[in-house]
Every structure is written in structure tokens, then in C-alpha cells.
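Q: I'm writing up a methods section and want to include an example of the input and output format. Could you take the sequence below and give the corresponding predicted C-alpha cells, formatted cleanly so I can copy it straight into the document?
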Amino acid sequence: MWLTKLKKALILEDFEHLSALLDEMPQFDTIDKMEEAAYLLMQSKICLEKNKVHTAQILNQLKSTLDFLKSTQTEPPSSLNLKF
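A: Here is the clean output for your methods example:
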């Protein structure tokens, strides 16, 4: 059952569910189940690393966009700039 949930979370790229499943990893009774779990965990790690890189790229793009927008704006007058 745990392996099925892990497969589903991996296919759906549900990282919160993957994390929860890792916290409740059972003891496996056969070598085949252990090997399958090890393979799925390796695939999960690869998927998480790809997501991490993708998220970092998006954050860099957002930072660049914000920097560009800030550089194109004229500075608003200071609220302390009093004219009589």
C-alpha cells in the first residue's frame, strides 16, 4: 500500500505527499519491495532536484523582472518634500 501511495505521489509530483510518505516509511518484508522502494526514492529525489532547479530559475526571473521594473520607474517625490 505504501509503495502504491509513493508511486501515485511521484507520478502526480505531489511533493507534500512525498514528504509525508517519507516520514512514515514502513519496514519491507521482501528484497523485491526494498529494491522497488529504493528505485522509487531515487526517482523522487531526481524529481525534487529538477523542481528545485526550476523553482530557482523562476525566482531569478522574478527578481530580474522586479529589478527591471524598479529601474524604469521614476522615483516618487518624498513625503517630506514640502513646497511653499
